[in-house]
Amino acid sequence: QVELVESGGGSVQAGGSLRLSCAASGDIDGSYCMGWFRHDGETTRVGVAAIDSDGGTTYADSVKGRFIISKDDTENILYLTMNMLKPEDTATYSCFTGVPGVLQSGGYCHARKSGMEYWGKGTRVTISA
C-alpha cells in the first residue's frame, strides 16, 4: 500500500555534498516515521537519520552535524541533505517508513508491532578520497 522510490545518489569527492530524495505514494496517514538506512555490501542496514509525523528527528552520531533529514508533506518527499561527505559514507541508502512508527535514538525509525514497514530499493552513494 506504500511505495518508496529513492533518487539522487551518485559519485562525489570527499568534502562534497549530495541530496537524496524519497518519493512516497500510498497511505502514510496518522502516526508514522520515515528514515534513511544505509549498508555497503552487508545484510544489516544501519540507521542514518529519521523523522516522524510530528517533525521530530534523530541522527546517527556518525552523521550528526553533517546530514539533515527533512520532508515536504505537500509533495510527499523525504530528503536527506548530506554535507562534508566522507569515504566512509559510501553505501546504498534506502528509504523506510513505519506506519505507524516511532523514532529511536541513533537515527532509527521502527514500525510499531501493530504497524507495517516499507522499504525503497535504494540509491547508491560513492565518495572518493
Which features would summarize this protein structure in a list?
single chain; mainly beta; 7-stranded mixed sheet; 4-stranded antiparallel sheet; 62% strand
Share in β-strands = over 45%
* Rg value: 14 Å
β-strand number: 11
Alpha plus pi helix count: 0
> Rough shape?
globular
Percent helix among the residues? under 10%
Task: Average the pLDDT over all residues and give the rounded result.
Answer: 96
Q: Which structural class matches the secondary elements?
A: mainly beta
Largest sheet: 7 strands, mixed
Give the SSE map.
Blueprint: E1 2-7, E2 10-13, E3 18-26, E4 33-39, E5 46-52, E6 57-59, E7 67-72, E8 77-82, E9 91-104, E10 108-119, E11 123-128
Parallel strand pairs: 2-11
Antiparallel strand pairs: 1-3, 3-8, 4-5, 4-9, 5-6, 7-8, 9-10, 9-11
Provide a descriptive summary of the structure in words.
The chain is an all-beta fold. The protein has no helices and eleven strands. The strands form two sheets. Strands 2, 4, 5, 6, 9, 10 and 11 form a seven-stranded mixed sheet that branches. The chain is globular, with a radius of gyration of 14 Å. The termini are far apart. The relative contact order is 0.31.
